[in-house]
Design goal:
The chain is of the alpha+beta class. The protein has a domain of 249 residues: Amidase signature (AS) enzymes, CATH 3.90.1300.10. Helices cover 36% and strands 16% of the residues. It has 14 helices and 17 strands. It has an eleven-stranded mixed β-sheet with strand order 1-3-2-8-10-9-16-17-13-11-12, with helices on both faces. A hairpin with a 2-residue loop joins strand 6 and strand 7. The longest helix is centred in the last third of the chain and has 24 residues. The chain starts with 7 loop residues before the first helix and ends in a 7-residue tail after the last helix.
Amino acid sequence: MKWKFATAEYLSTAMRTGDVTSVELTNEAIARIERDDRLINAICVPDFDRARAAAHQADQARARGEDGPLLGIPVTVKESYNIAGLPTTWGMPQQWDYTPTEDAVQVSRLRAAGAVVLGKTNVPVGLQDIQTFNDIYGTTNNPWDHDRTSGGSSGGSAAALATGFGALSIGSDLAGSLRTPAHFCGVYAHKPTLGLAATRGMVAPPAPPLPTDFDMAVVGPMARTARDLTVLLDVMAGPDPLTSGKAHTLTLPPARHQRLSDFRVLVLDEHPFIPTGSAVQAGVNRVADALVDGGARVERHSTLLPDLAEAATIYMQLLVSGSVARFPIEEYQELQAQATELSEDDQSLDAARLRGMVFSHRDWTQVYNLRELHRHTWRQFFEEFDAVVGPITPTPAFPHDHDPDLFQRRIAIDGAEHAYFDQLVWAGLASMPGLPATAIPADRSPEGLPVGVQLIGPMFEDRTPLRLAELLEQKIGGFQAPR
């Protein structure tokens, strides 16, 4: 199939020159899904009839001389976004028949840009896992190794892109949910600056789609090239028209540099709370070598960097404090009892998570103030540097692990076991202060699995890590189809 892994940019050009129509692209994508998705299980809610109709309308619009950034491009959407007439379950069995009546703001923006929505992609239960499986739609497999996870929670979107099911997808990220699946599946993703892209309609059912400001969660683009990420981010970015959009318009600053030799980069490959596996370390070093070869100023240490241990602790506490807000009172009281038994000397991430689960408002406010200090430290850091290169998780994609007790799961790093959720410290590096981060393919593990890294940039300067991603793609290569 000729157009299977073509980029959105290439497809747009081909449609403008008359080499292909949106109807042809859409029918070909649907045929691929119907043929190949039985092994991957990425598309959990197909919307093929409306996709064909939208493709026909896109071709008619182009024939009238109209154009748009995504006109006629087949795309997918994470299941957690509301699409009128399709179920939004977040993988929760009790919500299997919840059907919203209006599109999420980002789905509306896709449609306004001319995109053809093929359907929705699979997610873990409540979007709260580093894997993608649930009792409604089953398990999404990694296209590179079906015995391994595609990541979570945007695992369906990453697997769809890696398998050629559409040129673009949209997901969300609180704990690496865009970046980790991109890393595991060998594609690109961008976690925008907190607040850059409106989130209305990306809400757990049956909650109403209100224009809520999330504490750390964002929505963002996924693609097979860095340039496509930028195009899709431009479609997604901007305030909610129901709130700040009434008074504000968005103008993102340009990338700080256009040439690799002008970038000032800090490379990180070690964390105080968890080791970095050899395969990921090799990927980070490959990018670091490419930066040096391209003439960039590369450092491995800086006194300007915020304290990584304190940052991880703050992140874990903020992450879990909201997750227990709707727990039954009996479960909450049990957690309180467990927290009182912790030693004051216990500064492990397990202890941080338990303390965060029973935060008082006073506790939360104190940690929030610490976060603001970290944000200020990052502002000072980015006066000296343009980006940080680091891991996304300590390992490539790991085997499926469906143990219902998530806190009993373990992640193996070069043969040694570690707490499952400790691997989120690298995702938190950008999530906690709200910084933009671009996930790029960097290498292959000895087993042939994709290895990605993240490029973290200054707040609201999203074009800087995106431009760096584009330059690195030219230097070391980018997406490769699963073998």
